[in-house]
Amino acid sequence: MTAAKRYDLVIVGAGMAGGLLAAEATRRGRSVALIEAGGRFDFNRRLAQLKRNQTFADRWPNEWQYEIPGRDRFTDSSRQSVGCDYLLKYHRVKGVGGTTLHWGGRINRLLPSDFRTAALYGMGVDWPVTYEELEPYYSRADWELGVSGTDHPALPPRSRDYPNPGFPFSVDDAVWMPVAQRLGITLHPISFAINSRPYAGRSQCLAFATCQVCPSGARYSADVHVARAEQTGLCDLFTNTVARRIEVNGSGAVQAIHVSSLDKQQREIQGASYVIAAHTIESARLLLLSNCGNHSDQVGRHFMEHIYVHGGGTLPGQRFFPARVGYEVMESLSYYQGDDRRERGGVKLEFTFNNDPLGAMEDRGLWGKAIAQYDRDNFGRWVGINAETEHQPNPDSRISLDATTRDLFGDPVPHIHLAFGDIDRRTQRRAGEIIRQLLWEAGVRDATVDPLSSFSFASHHLGTCRMSDDPDTGVVDRNCRVHGIDNLFVVGGSVFPTAGALQPTLTIAALSLRLADHLLGAA
Amino acid sequence: MLVAALAALAGATIGARWLVRPAQIAQIKRGALDISLETKLATIAFMGALYGRNLSQSDVADLSDRLDFRIANDEDFPRDCEVLVQHLDAMAGRLGAATFRACDDSQRDSIVQRIMTINNRSLVSRLLAHLSSSQYQYYRIRWWTVAQLTWIYRQSAAAWRARGYTRWPGIPGDWHDVLAPGAPYP
Predict the structure, then answer these.
(1) How far is CA A409 from CA A76, A267, A280, A405, in A?
(2) What's the burial of B154, exposed, middle or buried (CB within 10 Å: 0-12/13-18/19+)?
(3) pLDDT tens per residue across span B52-106
(4) Residue B144 carries which DSSP code?
(5) How much of chain B is helix, strand and coil, in % rounded to 5?
(6) Each residue of A16-69: pLDDT tens digit?
(7) How far apart are the C-alpha atoms of A357 and B159, rounded to whole Å?
(8) Is the Cβ of A174 closer than 8 Å to some Cβ of chain B?
(9) Cα A387 off chain centre by
């Protein structure tokens, strides 16, 4: 069956990149078909989702319950390289709003140097766009998402103030001030896409401390922009609809996207331009399934994640009051670059106090009166540092098609192979050294730092459709257009040439706004 | 040779089943989405005992609410609670008490000790869990039910009130609270 309607823009994926682009396009009077593999989550169910979060031990992303086994199947061989499986279900949400339904709301711009790591440090590749080119879009993205932030000399230059005042340091953060002074490092407040005051029809933060499910709506999620697009009457949203093929005609232009609903009803959706914003893994998979943009065998390669290295310990004589909000409010970029930056990737530090002594029931084999006493002795005495580390682009770290495993529709599922190189290991090792040094300076004498075999992922999926001016080394050009196909674009974390060590959502939003201007004319 | 080895293993397994036989459990079907008040209160009492706490009425009310939510949204969990409480009551009986709830603190501690030291990871226990549904349910208490109940407790008002907090994750408030010290541990 062929849909009669022809849209100005067909977008695959209703997450951060796709939702924002749909809102921009409809605001400018363009018709949009927005195709989303997942369903729509009713905001009024957030309190029930919060309860689910707090009553099911296998909690993430249990509260979103987005998984449909046949649709979301994947295979993984990451253990061979990184030493553990990459359990994708823990790292994304499918649905209207995408993974921003679940995120913590931390917002960062990449640093100007992140766009030029090859030129400055001899590692990675340079982006075909500069920070300066992207800066106006970063500022617009701040206002679209309602970022609460405090300008600081350690942060990249900005052309416009934050829309909301930043969250100040907590009373607990004061413990780090003398350490920073002694070591000459700079601490600054974290910026958040969480309202510090009412903004754009959304509540201010009500400190539920469960940011993965924000019942107040103070923490931004991209369903906000999808709703704005729908309210114009110009956006048709197709939920529970999986894009399966991009059809390219004989003259090298996309003619339609072929989709299937969960009951396997097929249709094609046509438009003037097509944007794939289906998250890093599914965007690459759709291009591979459609044999689009893979002229140089680049689609799916350079899959990157941010690796967190954790450390912490007890601080005698101190009592902190953690878990009163769900997020840390202090970070440092002082070790992001440094003298050894040519030897390792970026390292960003976040300072935390959240460590529940009641977890010692399983960790230390304590229960009954013993754990009650342990909690009394240890609650609030723990101080920790999380280091977000850069993952270098690596062609062997990739998404490919697994021809032996099929999804609900009979299509090959994505095969994940996340891989680390020597630089990544050096970066993680250096992060551990930095954490240990800072904890020692703070007076922690029982510090433990994750070994290299035990780290966690930030759930930041990047790469796989690299942006490059050279078709031989990338999938899309500087305007996110797929090389060789005039009306096909990819946007999102997938086009990042390098990962930096900073939360990517604002950069994704900025790239989406920039693409909107390219496709639709300046705002 | 192989046949003899398999026969010996089967014999050893059957013998081991007799040695470590758990309390006999009445057959409980899954999918009830509810439990009796007695079972609920016993489950909550067990959560308190796990954490060495005598729960207040407010604590019990909060944990009851969380348990109700879990039970209403997980068709396996009512049976998990029923199985747990049957074991708790059976152990209480061996200590001379009518039920787990009727136990004094010392008896509850003793029962918690036994539950927490169920060895569900040994080869024998894994074999037994495969061979018998009652054995499976017995080991499931340790690796699944306890994990769920401890998670529920750790998020609860009971856990946070004990630390002097008047607000806890899931309860709205004012983010400016973090600008001032909180209450000390009671």
Answers:
(1) 20, 13, 20, 11
(2) buried
(3) 999 999 999 999 999 999 999 999 999 999 999 999 999 999 999 999 999 999 9
(4) I
(5) 65, 0, 35
(6) 999 999 999 999 999 999 999 999 999 999 999 999 999 998 755 578 888 888
(7) 11
(8) no
(9) 16
Which residue bears the tokens 């607000």?
A: B167
- A321 near B CB under 8 A: yes
Q: Report the DSSP pairing between strands A148-149 and A254-261.
A: unpaired
Cα gap B3→B9, rounded to integer Å: 10
ipTM of the modeled complex: 0.91
Q: What type of residue sits at position A108? A: N
Please check whether residue A419 is in contact with residue A397, taking contact to mean a CB–CB distance below 8 angstroms. Answer: yes
With an 8 Å Cβ cutoff, are B169 and A379 in contact? no
The first and second tokens of residue B96, run together, are: 């001379």
Reference A306, options A439, A435, A187, A397; nearest CA is A397
How does DSSP assign A96-159, residue by residue?
TTGGGGT---EE-PPPGGGGBHHHHHSSS-B-SS-HHHHHHHHHHHHHHHT-EE---TTSPP-S
CB contact A54 to B (< 8 Å): yes
Which residues of A, range 214-273, sit inside 8 Å of B by Cβ?
215-216
Question: Which of B71, B95, B99 lies closest to B86 in space, CA to CA?
Answer: B99
Q: Do A207 and B177 touch (CB under 8 A)?
A: yes
Hunting for tokens 């460590």 — which residue is that? A355
CA distances A171 to A151, A184, A317, B179, Å, are: 20, 21, 15, 5
* Other CB atoms within 10 A of residue A154 CB: 15
What single DSSP character describes residue A368?
A: T
Residue of B nearest to A48 (CA): B69
pTM metric for this prediction? 0.93
